[in-house]
């Protein structure tokens, strides 16, 4: 792979806090190596801004290996940028060429208010999990791990759903800002496993209820969420959720 | 005097006897007791959830935007447990023995035994929570093997075991939040510990969104804040990982044990340039199928695939014929450094070796597949094609990650890898009950020092974090809190809270008012370079002494020339970083002092003065069979306390992997 350097124009969303109007600010960055990660390019820019006594750009990031779900940039109209199945932190500058203009925005959704610049508050996701995204089992009361065999195919599907990193790209990509892919991944994971069966009705109803309360929109199955999900979570999980939801609504004893 | 409070009696019975006699707190009294948990990784989330289930009032804190993001999430390979589901001879004793030996006989025997004992319960608990471990076709749990061990005892969920375990603990935690038993404070970072009458009674936090300082009371405080690998700047840790919570406790009286024990993981993607912000691990499991080599010629310029077989040096297989590419992490890392230092390194920086899958791809997987498909005398091309499919199934996500980062296709060319800082075995000194040398202050998970000695085995970090949180602290904390039931919550207007908050506020003002020329990042990089060169994979007396002087000089410069933009009372990531780096500067010095003091080599701590004729680590048991616990006595001043290590069940021997 040939290494090269590039000069770029960045248009980045700047917003002081939740109550202030934001705007795009334009920056020129020079001599960016094709070996850098996208966030390292931001590191370089921020170091320069500090040197010039200007305010650095605030953005969320932590593990920088694509698993913590903290990074959340909307790059050129696509959550996490141009590479398929990749988080912002794993996107590398090889994806761009000399002279490119790159537009970077925060996730935009009513349920994810902007905290500062490119940082948003995703507390709504935690509250949806609090509503029922768990199995109610206290420590110490578990039976032997092999007491209940689980069909391998089901276990594998549960794992694939559980791979969700809670980044919120699905919400950012959705024209309705729906959180259905996120919610369905957790509902499906726990519904596929026998351990999750006792609470399956209340879980799906409570989680959907909380999702609505948080201000996420409805799902119209356009599949934009799946297309941008860095962990390639499938919309099949939304079908599983719908099945769970329908059956719960019709049969739950209130 | 250090009292480890290890219970009397045979090692195998200590924990059971302890549990049978430990003091209890009745449910009505638990509701009156408040517990602070700092950090929400495996140790913190499991402890917070479990203590809340028991009835304690819990306040949990993390600096990330959600407890689900703690760096436990990034653990790849798996979690050990002595289940013996494979019927291959595993037992509590074997897991205990492997862990103790892997740690080069520098851990506390009773703690390590307890870890092995509770390991099986962890798997039961996680399965009940819905953690989707890998399974076999019969529906039962699958296991894989890991370095330095002869049984298959590692439970896993693809290359994302840490993620799945953490989400299990996170969900248990969120359930308790919903029930009102835990109050969760995200984007809050602990800045100081509050001590009243010699007991830990609270913490001061910075609200990372508003920049305000906030005070919190607790009858006890649990530090579950992880390791300090980021003192090296470049490591496999997340960007935010830091030592601040533990360091503040240390400066208030908690001893810091074995700070020089740092694990350098042999297989990470090498540094490409000065812009590099972190390093990425390639799982230890890859060494099962990869062969590590360098060219036989120094300063080789040909591409890897153009170098003929007879001009390749498979140095691990050459030096360690018995274990070959599967020697423990510390041994593999030192061997790679030795080759690169001698001028045999590869890549543009010459600081890398090859990890090559072609041999097994063709001979192991390609031939097996060919035979399965009934292909006779297959040509190399066919073997490569067939082998590739198998390798993809086993390691596909890791290969993809490698390609994203380097732009090279590891199916076609060997990976370039180099050792990187990964885990810290040292940490706050704790007794058998996980209490530090401050009453009512506990340390769990990577934050403490006790279970892994001088080198941690693969798949044991997850085990320890969850053991401490789910199964140890819920018992041991009762022994302390039983005596606290009549203590009323102290109002945070108490003078001790006032004083602690003022000290934090003064320091922040000091940092902001330096108004120098250099950014935090510049200082952190320079500190990391000193640590890596002087207190990294190999250490010697002269280098460590230089390191100490260089760190002191750098610290002085830091406090005179640091530049932080923005204000205190607002979101200010640069100020947060400066706070952390200021503490790393002090820790770095203590690490060098500890490494200088321990003139033996053990596990990952390699003193060049103490090696065998063929360059292996040489322990000196009669002088160093102890834990070095350092007490802070003022700037640049520490007093050493020693905890002698007793071994009843497993007598120390020299490790040999030849």
Give an account of the 3D structure.
The complex is a heterodimer of chains A (254) and B (658). Chain A has 254 residues and is of the alpha+beta class. Chain A has helices at 38-51, 123-130, 152-162, 169-173, 180-192, 200-213, 224-228, 236-251; strands spanning 5-14, 23-33, 74-75, 78-79, 101-105, 114-116, 119-120. In chain A, helix 5 crosses helix 8 (236-251). Chain A is elongated. Chain A starts with a strand and ends with a helix. In chain A, 52% of the residues are buried. In chain B, a hairpin with a 5-residue loop joins strand 7 (199-207) and strand 8. Chain B is of the alpha+beta class. Chain B is globular. In chain B, helix 3 packs parallel to helix 12 and helix 5 packs across helix 12. Chain B starts with 13 loop residues before the first helix and ends in a 14-residue tail after the last strand. Among the domains of chain B are: 267-420, Flavocytochrome C3, Chain A, domain 1; 498-626, Methane Monooxygenase Hydroxylase, Chain G, domain 1. The model of chain B has no long low-confidence stretch (mean pLDDT 95). The longest helix of chain B has 27 residues, at 380-406. Chains A and B meet through helix 1, helix 2 and helix 3 of A and helix 3, helix 5, helix 6, helix 11 and helix 12 of B.
Strand order of the largest sheet of chain B: 5-2-1-9-17
Number of strands of chain B: 19
> At the first level of CATH, what is the class of one domain in chain B?
Alpha Beta
Look at the structure and name the CATH superfamily of one domain in chain B.
Answer: Succinate dehydrogenase/fumarate reductase flavoprotein, catalytic domain
Uncertain parts of chain A: none
> What's the CATH architecture name of one domain in chain B?
Alpha-Beta Complex
Share of helix among residues of chain A? Answer: 25-40%
General shape of chain A: elongated
Stated plainly, the CATH topology of the largest domain in chain A is called Fumarate Reductase Iron-sulfur Protein, Chain B, domain 2
CATH hierarchy class name of the largest domain in chain A: Mainly Alpha
Tally the helices of chain B: what do you get?
A: 17
Structural class of chain B: alpha+beta
Beta-strand share of residues of chain B: 5-15%
Distance between the termini of chain B: 41 Å
Alpha-beta content class of chain A: alpha+beta
């Amino acid at each position: 792979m040939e290494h090269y350097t590039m000069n770029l124009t960045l248009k980045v969303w700047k917003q002081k806090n939740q109550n202030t109007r934001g705007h795009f600010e334009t920056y020129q960055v020079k001599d960016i190596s094709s070996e850098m990660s996208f966030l390292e390019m931001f590191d370089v820019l921020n170091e320069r801004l500090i040197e010039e006594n200007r305010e650095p750009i605030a953005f969320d990031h932590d593990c920088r290996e694509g698993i913590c779900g903290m990074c959340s940039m909307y790059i050129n109209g696509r959550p996490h940028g141009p590479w398929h199945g990749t988080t912002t932190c794993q996107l590398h500058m090889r994806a761009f060429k000399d002279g490119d203009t790159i537009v970077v925005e925060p996730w935009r959704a009513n349920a994810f208010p902007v905290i500062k610049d490119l940082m948003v508050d995703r507390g709504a996701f935690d509250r949806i999990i609090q509503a029922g995204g768990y199995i109610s089992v206290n420590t110490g009361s578990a039976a032997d791990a092999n007491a209940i065999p689980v069909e391998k195919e089901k276990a594998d599907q549960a794992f694939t759903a559980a791979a969700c990193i809670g980044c919120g790209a699905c919400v950012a990509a959705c024209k309705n800002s729906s959180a259905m892919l996120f919610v369905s991944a957790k509902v499906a994971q726990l519904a596929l496993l026998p351990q999750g069966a006792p609470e399956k009705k209340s879980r799906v109803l409570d989680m959907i209820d909380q999702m609505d309360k948080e201000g996420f929109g409805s799902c119209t199955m356009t599949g934009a969420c799946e297309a941008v999900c860095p962990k390639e979570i499938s919309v099949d999980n939304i079908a599983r959720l719908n099945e769970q939801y329908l059956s719960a609504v019709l049969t739950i004893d209130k | 005097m250090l009292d480890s409070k290890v219970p009397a009696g045979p090692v195998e019975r200590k924990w059971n006897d302890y549990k049978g006699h430990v003091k209890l707190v009745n449910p009505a009294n638990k509701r009156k007791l408040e517990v602070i948990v700092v950090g929400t990784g495996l140790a913190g989330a499991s402890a917070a959830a479990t203590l809340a289930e028991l009835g304690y009032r819990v306040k949990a804190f993390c600096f990330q935007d959600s407890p689900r993001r703690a760096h436990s999430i990034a653990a790849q390979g798996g979690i050990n447990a002595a289940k013996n589901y494979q019927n291959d001879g595993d037992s509590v004793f074997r897991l205990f023995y492997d862990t103790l030996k892997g740690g080069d006989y520098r851990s506390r025997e009773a703690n390590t035994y307890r870890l092995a004992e509770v390991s099986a319960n962890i798997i039961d608990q996680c399965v009940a929570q819905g953690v989707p471990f890998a399974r076999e076709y019969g529906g039962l749990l699958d296991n894989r093997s890991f370095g330095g061990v002869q049984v298959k005892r590692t439970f896993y969920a693809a290359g994302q075991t840490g993620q799945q375990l953490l989400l299990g603990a996170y969900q248990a935690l969120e359930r308790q939040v919903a029930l009102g038993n835990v109050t969760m404070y995200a984007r809050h970072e602990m800045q100081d510990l509050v001590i009243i009458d010699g007991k830990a009674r609270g913490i001061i936090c910075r609200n990372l969104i508003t920049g305000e300082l906030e005070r919190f009371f607790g009858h006890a405080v649990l530090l579950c804040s992880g390791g300090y690998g980021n003192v090296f700047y470049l490591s496999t840790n997340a960007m935010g990982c830091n030592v601040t919570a533990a360091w503040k406790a240390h400066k208030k009286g908690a001893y810091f044990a074995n700070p020089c024990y740092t694990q350098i993981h042999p297989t990470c993607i090498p540094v490409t340039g000065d812009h590099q912000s972190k390093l990425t691990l390639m799982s230890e499991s890859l060494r099962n199928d990869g062969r590590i080599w360098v060219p036989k010629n120094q300063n080789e310029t040909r591409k890897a695939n153009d170098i003929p077989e007879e001009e390749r040096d498979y140095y691990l297989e050459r030096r360690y014929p018995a274990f070959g590419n599967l020697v423990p992490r510390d041994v593999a890392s030192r061997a790679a450094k030795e080759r690169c230092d001698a001028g045999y390194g590869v890549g543009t920086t010459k600081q890398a070796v090859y990890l090559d899958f072609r041999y097994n791809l063709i001979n192991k997987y390609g031939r097996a597949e060919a035979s399965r498909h009934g292909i006779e005398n297959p040509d190399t091309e066919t073997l490569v094609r067939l082998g590739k499919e198998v390798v993809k199934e086993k390691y596909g996500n890791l290969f993809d990650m490698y390609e994203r980062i380097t732009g090279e296709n590891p199916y076609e060319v060997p990976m370039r890898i180099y050792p990187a800082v990964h885990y810290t075995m040292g940490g706050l000194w704790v007794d058998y009950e996980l209490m530090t040398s401050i009453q009512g202050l506990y340390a769990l998970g990577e934050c403490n020092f006790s279970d892994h000695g001088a080198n941690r085995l693969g798949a044991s970090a997850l085990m320890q974090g969850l053991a401490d949180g789910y199964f140890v602290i819920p018992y041991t904390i009762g022994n302390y809190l039983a005596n606290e039931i009549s203590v009323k919550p102290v109002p945070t207007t108490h003078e001790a809270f006032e004083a602690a908050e003022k000290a934090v506020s003064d320091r922040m003002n000091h940092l902001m008012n330096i108004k120098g020329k250099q950014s935090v990042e510049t200082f952190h990089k320079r500190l990391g370079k000193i640590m890596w060169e002087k207190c990294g994979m190999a250490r010697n007396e002269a280098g460590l002494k230089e390191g100490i002087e260089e760190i002191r000089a750098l610290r002085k410069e830091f406090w005179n020339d640091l530049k932080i933009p923005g204000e205190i009372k607002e979101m200010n990531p640069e100020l947060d970083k400066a706070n952390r780096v200021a503490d790393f500067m002090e820790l770095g010095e203590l690490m060098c002092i500890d490494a200088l003091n321990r003139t033996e080599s053990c596990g990952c701590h390699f003193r060049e003065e103490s090696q065998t004729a063929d360059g292996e680590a040489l322990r000196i048991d009669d002088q160093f069979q102890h834990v070095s616990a350092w007490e802070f006595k003022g700037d640049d001043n520490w007093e050493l306390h020693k905890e002698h290590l007793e071994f009843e069940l497993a007598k120390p021997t020299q490790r040999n992997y030849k």
